[in-house]
Amino acid sequence: MNEQKEKINSLSKVICIFCKITKVCIIIAMILIAMAIGVTLLSLGQTEGIWTSVSNILSEDYIINGSLNVFYAVLEFTNALISGVILYLLTDSTLNLFESIENSHTPFDIKNINIIKKIANIMKILVIVPPVLSISIATIFQTTATINFNFSMILVVIVFYCLSEIFAYGAKLQKDADETL
Predict the structure, then answer these.
(1) Whole-model pTM above 0.70?
(2) 71: exposed, middle or buried (C-beta count within 10 Å: 0-12, 13-18, 19+)?
(3) Domain ranges across the chain
């Protein structure tokens, strides 16, 4: 195994470990968000009690006109949950890519190209869906929304699409080189 392949493998292992840790953290965050949704829904219709107290702490950012708007809080928590699912899919695809790179003789293979395209598509969803949901929720409840629309992510999506084309070209060259031998 040459020196470059060893570097690629060691970097892939590090990225795989990072992705596995990130997946666990995302799962924990999604469980906590789901619990926040549950607690907020349990407080529905109550004026006092444990669920209302906990819900008020969890949902203090969702007070409209002096009182907690449960549906607003639940929709915002749901938006966060959707973002978590998208991030989980992104992390899982990244893990699959680097496991594939680590286990193959070349990174230039059709499986990796497809994974890179999938990552670009997931990132595109991440750039579009949560901000659109935030704007929609803010419009429905006539509040000011904090929109996290990141233009640099659009550039990253474009870069990933370009990388998939570069990898496709590399795969063609790899195939030609393998057939020559």
Answers:
(1) yes
(2) middle
(3) 3-180
